[in-house]
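Exercise 7 asks you to align residues with tokens for two separate proteins.
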Amino acid sequence: MEKKAHNQIEPNKRFKTCNNFYASCFFVIFAILIIEVCETNSTIPNPNQHEIPNYKRFIRSDICYKEKSCKLVCNHESDVNLDAEINKGLQLLDTPCSVELEIEGLQLPENRIPENWLSNIATEIKILTIKSSPKLLEIANASFSSPYLKRISTLNIRNCGVKKFYKDMFKDLSALTTFWLEYGWNSFTEIEVEDNFLTHVDSLTSLQFTYCELSSDTLRRITNSINLSKLIKIDLGDNKVIELEANVFDKARNLEALYLRNNHLKSLDVKVFERLSRLNVISLEGNDLTTLPEGIFDDISIKSDTSISLKGNRFDCNCDLKWLQTMYLENPEIFKDSPPECEEGSFTDTDFCPNGEVSSTKGISPTRRINEWIPGK
């Protein structure tokens, strides 16, 4: 009887023991949660402070968001304080950081970027892009005089309504190395450039004007008025340049890449690439060229990575261009194995001089024979 009574009591003890164990676990977990909440509340800083590493998750800008670790994108299609919204967004970026700021749909009083713009933001901007802002019509001469904009290294203005550019517009951007101006493919208004445009900027290494309805006269005004000695790349693709005069790039002695694709070029002066001994990439595809003067590439050092693109032009393949056929047949890698095109026949197989005619082209300097070109010279 005693043994049976003992067996009846044992399950009750085990039940009580389990209850005590689960109760203890519950109180431990509850205590941990209380501690976490207290620590979190104690670390919420004053929202008026600028450096708030633990406050980032509580910040929200109405128009700006973090796209990458150091890139802030703002959609300014509303009447808000842009400086304040940018400051909110800047706190979301990683630190330390070279900040890239992109502003889309910029709307400002009088459709004009004023003097000393963005003077109340909290961090220097290194890369600034203003895009998709058709209502933006003017940039004041001292727009970038703010201490937070003066160190911009890259400025991109894309698909905006600004069509006139003045010589003092970027005078405060002494650190500017890259300038890219682009309009949409359906832009029909040519930009206007004042003489000495960008004359204050002597640190440019890359200059890009694409879809700008850029004419030959405007191109001359740009290249004649700025210090191009540090330029490595010029991209003038998708414009309406008809001709290139002699020495138009004479100030760009260190130029390595020149892009002139999809213009309306009909002719090139034999001296257009003169003194550009470092030029290594020449893009002339998609133009209206029918011939090239012999000797045009004489000053270029032909190397293993030299690239000359002539696709999309329909050449008159006669004796005047026999030199170009020879150049391609002996060095097809220069043209990336894509030969120029003849108006009639094959560029590689056509007999350019069936009667042994001598070139009658006037005013053209003789070229070096292709087998005299020394790579790297």
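Second protein for Exercise 7:
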Amino acid sequence: MSGCRLMRAISVSEFGGPSVLRLCSNVTVPQLGRRQVLIRVHACGVNPVEAYIRAGTYARKPTLPYTPGTDVAGVVETVGEEVVAVKAGDRVFTTATESGGYAEFTVAAEDCVHKLPEALDFTQGAAIGIPYFTAYRALVHKAQSKAGETVLIHGASGGVGVAACQLSRALGLRVFGTAGTPEGMNLVLNNGAHMAFNHREEGYTNKIMEATDGKGIGVILEMLSNINLSKDLQMLAYGGRVTIVGSRGPIEINPRDIMAKESSIMGVALFFATPEEKKECAALLYAGMETGWLRPVVGSQYPLDKAAQAHHDIIESPGAAGKIVLTM
């Protein structure tokens, strides 16, 4: 039935700069399979990885043409015959889509669709998926953070950073965060960080070390490894861990910094999360929504036809302040 309906969607037919994100108004509404859900999209989060994929610089490249977007929030339109978790009319958010989220409708697999509590609006729902699931994977599944440890979130005012601040505080960690603007530092402090530091300030790493009484940091979540990784290794405590969430290029490091502390560097890629890991994460995050500590911070909002501007800003803006979201 949905096959003959048309919708607006962003289509990418070549890899390149933000201008390759083109709005099409005659795209067929996608068909859904037995275990899939058709969602009327109200908002879709924009993630840095989507800009890397669009540019053609990411390890995995989708088949052209494609529609970007994984983190939508909206209302279930219809469900496949074997779907039991949600029904038509439910408010939901997703952690992945089959057909792309920069569109008025999207299809997602049932296990990637989660109910959105009434306390959160659709723009907040669109800020949950990749940011919070990535933060959980980095802190829990990779770094195996323990209550009482000190965590440094290097780039804490963006989507993943804010999620990591809230989650770290809920897990009982001592939370340090960095940002590049006074606004960003206030945002970090208002979302769970005990202390905030300006990573554009000369000597800021010395201040971080002073705040640990010289003992160093147990866990670092790193959003911009190509700039910060060498400094991170020098700030770690004995047995400390750096989790690589983001990088925009190569960097030179001294392996002796790792040897001296018996520290670890580990990559974080949500793509490799098992179904069991996703369920565990979803359960904890839903508890956070119910109890109130999970409260996504939405930054700049753009209409669908300004997706190219959103992609430009997520990479080029001088300081992040919450999650960038497209609205339909």
